[in-house]
Amino acid sequence: MAGWDSDYSYQPRPLFEKTFRCLSFDTYKNPHLKIGDKIIMPSSSLAEIVSVPIKFPLTFQMEGYNDDVVSHCGVLEFDAEEGCIHMPEWMMKNMKIQEGDLVILRNASLPRATYMKLQPHATVFTKLSDPRAVLEKTLRDFTCLSNGDTIMVQHNDRDFYLDVLEVLPGGAVNLINTDCQVDFAPPLDYKEPETHLKDIQKVDDRGKEHEEVKMFVPFTGKARRLDGIPAMAETTGECSAVVEGMSKLVIDEGKKREKDGGKEKEKEKFKPFTGKSRVLGGVEF
């Protein structure tokens, strides 16, 4: 058939779909209900839900009129005013809706969670004595999680916020009676340790010293005798190169000269068989 899309996945029509005006828990008779993701619905909704084959536990998809943000929630009670629902303030911020905005609720069947990856907003949360235990205790008040949600965790009268980066299987999961793996991404305010300028200079100085040691070549200085007098300037080019390159040879030569002293001239003047002749009897020729 022309125009048939093979990738089209059939989505059944929701058994429950209704529009409500959203109000915060501050306007509810029990304003302390701020933990978890459960909402308060009117009693007429309960009668409508019971009349259709919706599976329990109840989970709903929420969609705002003013934005395309989609999330999921559970239900705590059916005690709200007709046409209204009450929602925790942090969920309203997550949905980007204001007091009195319209919200569409649809029933949703979600799989059980097997994996979730969360990213704290503040590094302080990761420095708690046992952040996993704190998270586990908080998630007991949750019914479901969706990709892109920002949940609130309360501990010691402090509010901590965590972004839901990924949940499996699918983009939304059920948290009731589940045992799933939890990973934490680096907090949003986490910064890599900065290297100080002094440390960089020390490393550079050490590198320069290392290069100087490598460039050092022994026996390249000027030759000197043991008595401190520089080598003779009239030395030929070939000899001077040897003197400058092999200082040990110069040192040996200097020792020989010092040992011989001034007897070199006497050795040069000595001539054999030039003395007076004598015989055994003492008669001189």
TrEMBL record:
Keywords: Ubl conjugation pathway. The keyword rRNA processing does not apply. Residues 16-111, 113-187 form the Ubiquitin fusion degradation protein UFD1 N-terminal subdomain domain. It comes from the Eukaryota. InterPro entries: Ufd1-like, Ufd1-like_Nn, UFD1_N1, UFD1_N2. Belongs to the UFD1 family. PANTHER family: UBIQUITIN FUSION DEGRADATON PROTEIN 1 (PTHR12555), UBIQUITIN RECOGNITION FACTOR IN ER-ASSOCIATED DEGRADATION PROTEIN 1 (PTHR12555:SF13). This is Ubiquitin fusion degradation protein.
